[in-house]
Amino acid sequence: MDTGKDSRITRLSHLIQFSDATFPVGTFSFSNGLETAAYEGIVTDARSLEEFSRSAARQAAFSDGVTALAAMRAAKAGDYDGILKADQGLILFKMNDEARLMLRRMGKKLAELAARMTPDPLITKWLEDINAERTPGTYPVAQGLIFTAAGLDEEELFASHQYGVINMVLGAALRLVRVSHYDTQEILYRLAKEIPALYEEAREMNFDDMNAFVPQIDILASLHEKGSMRMFMS
Q: Which of 4, 100, 108, 115 is most open to solvent, judged by the fewest CB atoms within 10 Å of its CB?
């Protein structure tokens, strides 16, 4: 048996599993600001949806993406304090309550799943600290930990992270914007080609370099917090 090939197939299977839109971490509950953008007439068709998705992906790459990579590096080094630093740093970085809520809810759910799927002691300890409210338990940190435990690398982690952000927006768009599945798949295919360039920037960044200057998205998030009629939690 070619164990190397078998290992690559297993890794690919894990990557697909963790990136699947049906992976039960609650992504379907969030639109990443699209709901308000659609309501306000900012996103109305495939062209404006692609621009919004691109902005959301870029914003996430240089904040959540940087954090996910930092968590993976800390996990590989057995640096638990580094994991906690990444977790705390990201939650402090977020400007609005709904973004923090999204990261914490999805992060805890992924940590619970990860603890069941793998006996990794760092994940077990981190989940205990989440339950004890000693750390926020953000989703990108959870991604960094489970991808490390599964033997995946930084590029695979970043690709999955970006795919998740874009697909969250596009999945919500099918319920909010006049677009078809053809439109959303074409957008996803095009934006995937931009992920390598984002990775090359994000991989060299540290916490002091993190940035997410897409003010329109933050303003939309603030408006959404006060909305009384909505389908999504963010």
A: 4
CA distance 131 to 88: 15
- Compute the distance between CA of residue 216 and CA of residue 221 in angstroms, rounded to an integer: 9
Nearest-angstrom CA–CA distance, 138 and 109: 10
Question: Which residues of the chain are under the pLDDT cut of 70?
Answer: 1-6, 213-215, 217-234
pLDDT at 21: 84
Residue 233, judged by CB atoms within 10 A of its CB (0-12, 13-18, 19+), counts as middle
For residue 206, give the DSSP letter.
-
Cα–Cα distance for residue pair 126/73, rounded to 1 Å = 15
Helix ranges restricted to H, the chain: 3-19, 34-39, 46-60, 66-76, 80-93, 97-117, 121-131, 139-149, 154-176, 181-192, 195-202, 215-225
Whole-number pLDDT of residue 229: 46
* pLDDT in the model for residue 212: 72
CB–CB of 68/158 below 8 Å? yes
**CA dist., res. 126 & res. 110, Å (int):** 12
| Token pair 């329109």: residue | 216
In this structure, what token pair is assigned to residue 80?
Answer: 């638990």
Compute CA 103 distance to the chain's CA centroid, rounded to the nearest angstrom.
8
Domain 28-225 matching CATH 1.10.3720.10: the answer reads: no
pLDDT of residue 99: 83
Q: Let me know: does 49 contact 179? Beta carbons within 8 Å.
A: yes
66, two tokens? 């940087």
